């Protein structure tokens, strides 16, 4: 019981966290100006270590995320997206909701012309799930 209490750190007290945990806790999607505004080009990002927890069983879920987007005025900073994705590791969230929420947050941060996010979840209990969501600027 004592070990559990020691590992639970409140969000307000980040001084007891390891530096990586602090970066993940503070993780937000950071962008920078698109170096080729006006050029239509595609950026592909693969994140092979996505984890979250099943909201029903509490078991961990693992996935490879494939993000493809056409930038508008800004592009996402790669370390920032890595830290943002890592913030899901202890969340109880369904496959469907996690992929939709990640794309919503990405679109809010980057305002891309187009974006597709595919979550390819590892099989668990003989079930393999792939969730794909799309965004197109109007």
TrEMBL record:
Gene Ontology biological process terms, A to Z: tRNA queuosine(34) biosynthetic process
Subcellular location: Cytoplasm
One MF term in the entry's GO annotations: preQ1 synthase activity
Active site per database record: 54 (thioimide intermediate), 61 (proton donor)
Reaction catalysis annotation: 7-aminomethyl-7-carbaguanine + 2 NADP(+) = 7-cyano-7-carbaguanine + 2 NADPH + 3 H(+)
Superkingdom of origin: Bacteria
Pathway: tRNA modification; tRNA-queuosine biosynthesis
GO cellular component: cytoplasm
E.C. no: 1.7.1.13
Swiss-Prot/TrEMBL keywords: Cytoplasm, Hydrolase, NADP, Oxidoreductase, Queuosine biosynthesis
Enzyme class, first EC level, given as a word: oxidoreductase
InterPro entries: GTP-CH-I_C/QueF, NADPH_dep_7-cyano-7-deazaG_red, QueF, QueF_type1
Stored Gene3D superfamilies: 3.30.1130.10
Residues involved in substrate binding: 76-78, 95-96
Biological role: Catalyzes the NADPH-dependent reduction of 7-cyano-7-deazaguanine (preQ0) to 7-aminomethyl-7-deazaguanine (preQ1).
Family: Belongs to the GTP cyclohydrolase I family. QueF type 1 subfamily.
Protein name: NADPH-dependent 7-cyano-7-deazaguanine reductase
Originating gene: queF
